[in-house]
Design a protein that fits this description.
Layout lengths: L3 H23 L14 E2 L1 H8 L3 H10 L5 E3 L2 E5 H18 L4
Antiparallel strand pairs: 1-3, 2-3
Helix pairs in contact: 2-3
Length: 101
């Protein structure tokens, strides 16, 4: 048979457990984090950021056609593939101009 001291400790432990359960049930579970898929079309600013250039230069490249873009209603967007192609073209052109480097 349990002693009075053991029963008191058991009651205290059960009270803490009940309090813990009540507190954890009061907090809603965290919302699942939904990862966004990689974007296919970027703003000119986002394309500039990916290329590591300024916004003004990116708009100039779009205007001259060096950086491909599309218009959707009033929006101007740069395909993500165009950003990669532009960077590859820069590397290829630099290698052709500096074959020894």
């Amino acid at each position: 048979m349990a002693t009075a001291n053991e029963l008191t400790q058991l009651a205290a432990t059960l009270a803490k457990l009940a309090e813990s359960l009540a507190t954890s049930e009061a907090e809603p579970p965290p919302a699942p984090v939904r990862q966004m898929p990689e974007r296919v079309l970027l703003t000119v600013e986002e394309a500039a950021e990916r290329l590591g250039i300024g916004r003004t230069l990116a708009f100039r490249l779009v205007k001259t056609g060096q950086l491909e873009s599309v218009q959707i209603s009033r929006l101007r967007r740069v395909p993500a593939s165009a950003v990669r192609e532009f960077a590859e073209r820069l590397v290829t052109d630099a290698a052709a101009q500096n074959p020894a480097a």
